[in-house]
Specification:
The complex is a heterodimer. The longest helix of chain A has about 35 residues. Chain A is built from five helices and no strands. The two termini of chain A are about 30 Å apart. In chain A, helix 2 packs parallel to helix 4. In chain A, about 85% of the residues lie in helices and about 0% in strands. By secondary structure, chain B is mostly helical. Helix content of chain B is about 70%, strand content about 0%. Chain B has 25 helices and no strands. The longest helix of chain B is centred in the first third of the chain and has 50 residues. Classes of the chains: A mainly alpha, B mainly alpha. At the A-B interface, helix 1 of A face helix 1, helix 7 and helix 13 of B.
Chain lengths: ~140, ~625
C-alpha cells in the first residue's frame, strides 16, 4: 500500500473524530456557559479531551504525529479562545461558572499539550518544535 | 443565525478540502469514476451504510412514526432489509467486476445480458435517485434552513447553496471525493441520528416519560390504532380511492415496504461503490456490523425514539426539535443531517453522470470520445442533473415527490437480473429483460406517477396508490418474478454471450460452496423465511399482543410492537451474520483471480452507424412527442 493511502485513511478518522466529539464537546461547553452550568461545561471539556486522546490514538495506529496543519489549527484555535477568555475575565463580565469552565478548558489542554511534547520529543527537542530554522541554516548544516 | 452559517462554512470548507485531496490523487482522468478501484473496504462499508440510510430515516422514517405510530414495523427493520441485498450480491458482483474489468452496474448488465434495455433502465434508476430521491431530501433540508434562519435565507437560495456544495465536490473529486468524504459524512449522519434521539428524550424527560406518554396515547381509543398492525392485508382500492379500516399499516404493507427498502442496495449507486472498492474483504463486516448492526440499531432505537417523541408531542418532530435547541447544537445536528443526504446525493450524481455519458452516449453516439471528454461531459451532466433537481425543488415539488417515490421500487426490480447473474443461472436473457419490463409496469400502475400519466391521457384506473395496502415494489416484483419464471422455462436453450459465459464459469470455480455450507442450506432457508414472516410479514400480527399484559399494560415498558421490532432487529442481525459468514455469502475470499483477457477483436468504424442512431433518436423523439400531444388533445384532460 502506498504511503498516501494510510494518510488519507488517518485523515478520514481524524475528521470523523473531531466532527463528532469535537463539535459535541464544544456544544456542551457553550451550553454550560450559556446556562451557567459548570457540570455541563466540564462534560464538554471532557469530551474535547477525549477527542484529543482519540486523535493521539489514531496517530499511534498510523505511527505518525500531528501534521503541521493540525498543529497550526489547534494552536491558533487555542490562542483565539484563550484571548477571548482573558478579555472576558478582564472585562469582569464572566459568571464564576464561566470562569471555572474556562480554566478547566485551558488548564488541562495546556498541561496535556506540554506533556505530549515532552513525552513524544523529550525536553530538548520539544523546544525545537517551535524553533523553525531558516532554510539557509538547514542547508548549511547538511 | 451566527452558528448555522459558521458551521455551514466549515462543512463547505471540509468538502472542498476532500475534493482537493481526491483531485490530487486522481492525477489523470482515468480514476475519476471509480477511484482506481482502490477505495479501502472499511470506507466503502461506511459509505454504503450511510448512503443506504441517507436522510430518509430521519426525514421520512421518523416522520411516519411520528404521524402514524408503530403500524408499519418494517421501518424498524430497515437496517436488516437494507443489508440483505448486499449480503446476496456484493461479493459475487465484485468478483465479476474484477474478472471482467467492469466498474458499474450498467457495464455488468451489458456484459452479462447484452441488453441495452436493462442498461437504459439502470440509468433511469440512477437518474431518479440523483434528481428526485436526493432532490426531495434536499428540499426538506432547504425548508429546515429557512426555519433555522427565521426566513432570512429563502428556500431557493438554500436549495442552490446546498446543491452548489454538492456539485462542487462531486465534480472536482469524482468517486474518490464521494468515498473519502462519504466516510466522514456517514459518521456525522449516524451521530446526528443519535443526537436527535438524545435531545428528544431530554425534551420529554427521559425514556420512561416517553413511554408514559405513549401509554397515555394507547389508552385513548382514538389513538390506540397507532400501536398495532391493522391486519394481515386489507383489500382496499388503494390510497386516494378507498381508505383502509383503522390505518393502512397492514402486515403485508410492512413486507412490501421492506421489499422497497431492499431496492437500494440493488441500485446502481450501491453497486458503483462496491465495484470501486479494492477488495471484497470488508463486505461481510460492513453488511453485518456496520449496516445491520450499528445503523440498524440506530433505526430500531433512535429513529423510533424520535418518531415516538413526535407522536407524544407533535412539536418534537425533526424541525421542531432543531428550532428548539441551542443554535450550536441545532447547527451541528443540521450538518449531520445534511451530510447524510449529500452522501447519497453525491453517489447518485456521479453514478448517473457516468451512466448517461459513459454507458449510453459514448457507446451509442460518440465512440471516439477521448478519455478527457469522457470525464468532462459527465461533469457537465452532473451539473445539469443538480440544476434540474434544484429547479424541480422550487417549481414542481409535487412532480419531484411523485418521481422520488419511484426510485426504490424500480431499483427493487433489478433483483431478478442480479439474481440471474449471481445465483440463479437458469434466468435467461429474455426472461430477465421481459421480467424487468413487467416489473416496471407493475410499479408504474400502482404508483401515483403511472396513475396520473394514464389519467392525463383519459384512462382512469380503478385503483389508487398501493392497492390492497401493498407497496408498488411488491406489485412490480410479483409481475417481474412471474414473467421471469415463465419466460425462463421456455427459453432455456438460448445461449449467453462470451463474457457472460466467462462470468458464470469464474463464479462457479471461485465461490463453489463447501460441503459444510451445503449442509446448512435448509437451515438458512428456514431462518430467513421465519425472520421475514415474523419480523416484516404476516407474523407481525403476533407482535400486536406479544408484549401486552392481561390488563393492557406493557411489561417491557414500551409498546408491544416496538419491543417486537427490537427483538427481531437482534434476530435479523443474527440472520445477516449467519448468511454473510456461516453461509459464506459475503465472507472474504482466500485469493483473488487474475483479470480475464478477452480475445482481440478488430475495431470497426462506427461513425456512420452512430450518426444514423442519433438521427433515429431525434426522429423517434419528435414522433413520440407528437403522438403524446395528439393523444392528450384527443383523450386527455
Amino acid at each position: 500500500m502506498s504511503q498516501k493511502g494510510p494518510n488519507v485513511e488517518r485523515s478520514i478518522l481524524v475528521f470523523s473524530v473531531w466532527a463528532v466529539l469535537g463539535f459535541f464537546g464544544l456544544g456542551c461547553f457553550l451550553e454550560g456557559l450559556a446556562r451557567d452550568l459548570f457540570v455541563l461545561s466540564a462534560l464538554g471539556v471532557g469530551v474535547i479531551i477525549a477527542a484529543f486522546v482519540a486523535h493521539i490514538v489514531i496517530n499511534g495506529i498510523f505511527a505518525t504525529g500531528f501534521t503541521a496543519g493540525e498543529a497550526a489549527l489547534g494552536i491558533g484555535a487555542y490562542g483565539l479562545l484563550g484571548l477571548g477568555f482573558i478579555v472576558g475575565a478582564i472585562g469582569g463580565e464572566m459568571a464564576m461558572a464561566d470562569y471555572y469552565s474556562g480554566l478547566l478548558l485551558f488548564g488541562p489542554l495546556a498541561a496535556g499539550f506540554l506533556a505530549y511534547l515532552l513525552t513524544r520529543h523529550g525536553m530538548r527537542t520539544a523546544f525545537s518544535q517551535f524553533h523553525i530554522k531558516p532554510a539557509g541554516v538547514q542547508e548549511a548544516r547538511k | 443565525m451566527t452558528w448555522l452559517p459558521l458551521y455551514g462554512l466549515f462543512y463547505a470548507a471540509v468538502t472542498l478540502y476532500w475534493a482537493r485531496v481526491a483531485a490530487a490523487e486522481n492525477r489523470n482522468v482515468e480514476t475519476y469514476f471509480s477511484a482506481g478501484h482502490n477505495v479501502a473496504p472499511w470506507i466503502s462499508a461506511l459509505v454504503i451504510a450511510g448512503a443506504s440510510l441517507s436522510g430518509w430515516a430521519l426525514l421520512d422514517g421518523a416522520a411516519r412514526i411520528g404521524s402514524a405510530g408503530f403500524g408499519l414495523p418494517a421501518l424498524l427493520q430497515a437496517g436488516i432489509a437494507l443489508a440483505l441485498p448486499g449480503v446476496f450480491f456484493f461479493k459475487r458482483l465484485w468478483l465479476i467486476g474484477q474478472r471482467l474489468r467492469l466498474s458499474s452496474l450498467n457495464e455488468v448488465l451489458r456484459a452479462y445480458y447484452g441488453s441495452e434495455f436493462l442498461v437504459v433502465f439502470a440509468t433511469v434508476v440512477a437518474v431518479l435517485f440523483a434528481v428526485a430521491f436526493a432532490g426531495l431530501q434536499l428540499a426538506a433540508l432547504s425548508r429546515l434552513v429557512v426555519l433555522l434562519t427565521a426566513g432570512e435565507v429563502s428556500m431557493p437560495v438554500a436549495a442552490t447553496l446546498l446543491s452548489l456544495v454538492l456539485f462542487g465536490y462531486v465534480v472536482i473529486g469524482g468517486m474518490r471525493a464521494v468515498g473519502y468524504l462519504g466516510a466522514v459524512q456517514a459518521v456525522l449522519a449516524a451521530t446526528a441520528i443519535a443526537g436527535f434521539a438524545g435531545f428528544s428524550l431530554i425534551s420529554l424527560g427521559g425514556f420512561g416519560a416517553l413511554n408514559s406518554g405513549l401509554a397515555a396515547l394507547a389508552a385513548d381509543p382514538a389513538k390506540a390504532g397507532a400501536f398495532i398492525v391493522s391486519g394481515v392485508v386489507q383489500f382496499t382500492a388503494g390510497a386516494g380511492r378507498e381508505a383502509a379500516a383503522l390505518h393502512d399499516g397492514t402486515a403485508v404493507a410492512s413486507l412490501s415496504v421492506a421489499f422497497a427498502l431492499m431496492g437500494f442496495q440493488a441500485s446502481p449507486l450501491a453497486i458503483k461503490m462496491v465495484l470501486s472498492t479494492r477488495s471484497p474483504r470488508g463486505i461481510a463486516a460492513g453488511q453485518t456490523w456496520v449496516m445491520a448492526g450499528a445503523f440498524g440499531g440506530l433505526i430500531a432505537l433512535c429513529i423510533a425514539c424520535i418518531g415516538a417523541a413526535a407522536l407524544v408531542n407533535p412539536g418534537l418532530g425533526v424541525s421542531g426539535l432543531l428550532a428548539s435547541l441551542s443554535p450550536w447544537f441545532g447547527a451541528w445536528l443540521f450538518i449531520g443531517l445534511l451530510a447524510g443526504v449529500q452522501l447519497m446525493a453525491g453517489l447518485a450524481l456521479i453514478t448517473a453522470g457516468e451512466a448517461l455519458v459513459r454507458n449510453l452516449y459514448k457507446p451509442w453516439f460518440h465512440g471516439r470520445l477521448d478519455r478527457r471528454d469522457t470525464v468532462n461531459l459527465p461533469r457537465i451532466g452532473i451539473g445539469l442533473l443538480a440544476l434540474a433537481s434544484v429547479l424541480m425543488q422550487g417549481l414542481t415539488p409535487v412532480t419531484l415527490t411523485v418521481l422520488a417515490s419511484l426510485a426504490l421500487p424500480l431499483a427493487f426490480q433489478l433483483w431478478t437480473p442480479l439474481l440471474g447473474i449471481t445465483w440463479l443461472r437458469w434466468i435467461t436473457r429474455p426472461a430477465a429483460v421481459t421480467g424487468v419490463g413487467f416489473g416496471i409496469a407493475g410499479v408504474l400502475l400502482t404508483e401515483p406517477f403511472g396513475i396520473a400519466v394514464l389519467s392525463f391521457f383519459g384512462l382512469d384506473l380503478p385503483w389508487g396508490r398501493a392497492p390492497w395496502t401493498i407497496h408498488s415494489a411488491a406489485w412490480g416484483m410479483a409481475a417481474n418474478l412471474t414473467v421471469t419464471l415463465l419466460v425462463s422455462a421456455f427459453t432455456q436453450r438460448r445461449g449467453f454471450g462470451e463474457q457472460a459465459l466467462e462470468a458464470r464459469r469464474f463464479l462457479l470455480e471461485t465461490v463453489r460452496s463447501r460441503p459444510r455450507v451445503m449442509a446448512l442450506r435448509s437451515t438458512a432457508w428456514s431462518i430467513a423465511l421465519a425472520w421475514f414472516f415474523l419480523a416484516v410479514g404476516p407474523g407481525l400480527i403476533f407482535g400486536n399482543y406479544a408484549f401486552l399484559g392481561p390488563d393492557g399494560s406493557w411489561p417491557l415498558g414500551m409498546p408491544s410492537l416496538w419491543g417486537w421490532g427490537l427483538m427481531f432487529w437482534v434476530a435479523g442481525l443474527g440472520l445477516v451474520w449467519f448468511l454473510s459468514y456461516k453461509m459464506e455469502m459475503a465472507s472474504p475470499l482466500a485469493g483473488e483471480g487474475p483479470a480475464y483477457e478477452p480475445p482481440p477483436r478488430l475495431r470497426i468504424d462506427q461513425h456512420q452507424r452512430e450518426a444514423e442512431r442519433l438521427r433515429a433518436l431525434v426522429i423517434t423523439a419528435a414522433v413520440g412527442f407528437g403522438l403524446v400531444v395528439l393523444t392528450a388533445l384527443a383523450f386527455g384532460r
